[in-house]
Write a structure and sequence with these properties.
Shape: elongated
CATH superfamily of the largest domain: lambda repressor-like DNA-binding domains
CATH topology of the largest domain: 434 Repressor (Amino-terminal Domain)
Number of helices: 7
Strand content: under 5%
Structural class: mainly alpha
Number of strands: 0
C-alpha cells in the first residue's frame, strides 16, 4: 500500500530545502496552492503527470520522493551523505564519523535491550 502522507511529507521537506513556497511550487507545476497543500498532507493523491511535474520543479529524483524501502534508497542516501560532507575539513569529517559510529552502537544496544 502506498503511504501518501509519507510521500507528501517528503515533497514538503524537499520543497522547504529548496526554499520554495507552496505557491511557487504550485505555479511551477500548474496546479493550485490548495492542491499542493493537500498533496503534502496526504489528503490528495497526485496524478502521475503532477508527480512528474513536482519532481521536475523540485529538481530531485523520483527515488527521493517515492522510495519506501531503505535498500532501494541506500545509493541515494550514500550520495546525499557524500554531498553533505563534501565541504567539511578532515577534522569535521572525523568528528561526524565518530558521532555516527557512536549513534549506531547506541541504537544497536537499545535494540538488544528491547529484545530481552
Amino acid at each position: 500500500m502506498i503511504d501518501y502522507k509519507t510521500i507528501g511529507a517528503r515533497i514538503r521537506a524537499v520543497r522547504l530545502e529548496r526554499k520554495m513556497t507552496q505557491e511557487q511550487l504550485a505555479n511551477a507545476v500548474g496546479v493550485g496552492v490548495t492542491h499542493i497543500s493537500h498533496i503534502e498532507t496526504g489528503n490528495s493523491i497526485p496524478s502521475l503527470q503532477v508527480m512528474v511535474d513536482i519532481i521536475n520543479a523540485l529538481e530531485c529524483s523520483a527515488d527521493e520522493l517515492l522510495c519506501v524501502e531503505i535498500d532501494k534508497v541506500r545509493p541515494l542516501l550514500n550520495n546525499w551523505l557524500s554531498e553533505l560532507v563534501a565541504d567539511c575539513s578532515s577534522t569535521e569529517i572525523k568528528l561526524i564519523m565518530d558521532t555516527v559510529v557512536s549513534l549506531k552502537d547506541s541504537m544497536r544496544r537499545l535494540k538488544i535491550s528491547d529484545q530481552q
